[in-house]
Amino acid sequence: MVKMAGMFRPRRLDLSGFINTRVIRDHNKRMAIEQTEPERQALRYMIRNTSLPQRVRAQAQLQLSQMHPYTRPTQVKNRCVASGHGRSIVRAFRLNRFQFRMQAIAGELPGVQKASW
Amino acid sequence: MIQSCSKPTVAHYSVRAERLGALGENARLPRSVQAIYLRPLRRKAEYGLPVCDLQLRSYSVDNVEFFADFAIRAAYYLNLPVSGPVPLPRLVQRWTVLRSNFVHKKSKENFERITLRRLIQIKDGNPQVVQTWLAFLRKHAFYGVGMKANVWEHESLGTVYPSLEIAWITQLLTTGDMTDVGKAMDESLPEIEQSLRPYLAQFGQRENKSAENAKFDILETGRFAERNNQ
């Protein structure tokens, strides 16, 4: 099987907001994971189920290892929705630390204030 | 059931009452308008059985206080006994971020978000009236105030197991005491088990589950087989 990342790319871009290559790639991975999740879970179940014949379990292992890397949930990376940055994301706002600071100072994040205690 | 309010709220109402006095020098306002200036009225709870917990959340005190007041007044006019608003502990979330977008690790800035919560509890309410109250609050939802409601419904044992209640009542009527109610319940247990058996037999399974060995065939069919051929 040829491992082509392009097969997970939609014809039309179904994203809005800040976009760059890495954001699109991450989005494609999320889509791929969503689509193949039942298949992955079925294979995982077969591999772990000791009541199944050894042959079936080995086959399932092989198939799971042959699945495309994009279908692996560990491939997902949280990215900043305002800048596409992949590091130090504030999960509650899905923003990069610098974007978070700028938006917080501008008062665009409800309830967030400068703290001093 | 008038509860003592927190200090700022009391001051708030006294200020309003003064304003009301000034207004009413020449002519009295209608009662319904007067009520707005005074502490909200409340119904007395007869049994005190909690029926609904409404939690209000906001980042600003004014909003959450105002809406809690509104909810209590609405409950009064729907004949719902209410207790609260109970000020629940504030949720403080803090974030520390670098000031700069690049390096300068030692220069940081703190941000925080404080969520204020108020709990309003409805007691002894009819479930439909409680739903009406919640729908009314949702319709007139206030900006910047979130709502979360836990609703409990109670029903008598008789609605679930009619035979059980009949046994119970006959016991009560014939002997006149409640001590043997447990025995009566034990006696009616086999009957209940009988009625539950078809449901318990299917516990953890789907109704339309296919043949036992279906999982063995999965690998031979569909997408799995295709992958093998590639």
TrEMBL record, chain A:
Superkingdom per UniProt: Eukaryota
Annotated SUPFAM superfamilies: Glucocorticoid receptor-like (DNA-binding domain)
Pfam families, sorted: Ribosomal_S14
Keywords tagged on the record: Ribonucleoprotein, Ribosomal protein
GO terms classed as biological process: translation
Gene Ontology CC terms: mitochondrial small ribosomal subunit
One MF term in the entry's GO annotations: structural constituent of ribosome
Family annotation (InterPro entries): Ribosomal_uS14
Similarity comment text for this entry: Belongs to the universal ribosomal protein uS14 family.
PANTHER family: 30S RIBOSOMAL PROTEIN S14 (PTHR19836), SMALL RIBOSOMAL SUBUNIT PROTEIN US14M (PTHR19836:SF19)
Protein name (database record): Ribosomal protein S14
UniProt organism field: Penicillium alfredii
TrEMBL record, chain B:
Gene Ontology MF term list: structural constituent of ribosome
Pfam families: Ribosomal_S10
Biological process, per Gene Ontology: translation
KW Nucleotide-binding (keyword) present: no
SUPFAM superfamilies for the chain: Ribosomal protein S10 (SSF54999)
Domain named Small ribosomal subunit protein uS10: residues: 53-150
Highest taxon of source: Eukaryota
InterPro entries linked: Ribosomal_uS10, Ribosomal_uS10_dom, Ribosomal_uS10_dom_sf
Keyword entries, A-Z: Ribonucleoprotein, Ribosomal protein
SMART domains (UniProt xref): Ribosomal_S10 (SM01403)
Record-given protein name: Small ribosomal subunit protein uS10m
